[in-house]
Specification:
globular, about 70 residues, mainly alpha
């Protein structure tokens, strides 16, 4: 899971709320426009959706071996 977070935040590790990938994921999941994602919105979203986020990370972990084939 940590590996995915590391890769997904490449280039934006100190400011993940500026990452186009994470903005797109937040917009797709919640409907919050990507352009309006700020640090506060990013962390509020993660906190409010922490259960879903952990579920998503566990799913990524299960899917990872399938990508190697």
């Amino acid at each position: 899971m940590l590996r995915f977070l590391w890769v997904a935040s490449r280039g934006y590790r100190l400011k993940p709320w500026d990452s186009p990938y994470w903005r797109w994921r937040i917009e797709t999941y919640s409907g919050i426009p990507a352009e309006s994602v700020t640090r506060e919105i990013f962390f509020r979203f993660l906190w409010q959706e922490r259960s879903s986020f952990w579920h998503y990370l566990r799913w990524v972990r299960r899917m990872r071996p399938l990508l190697r084939n």
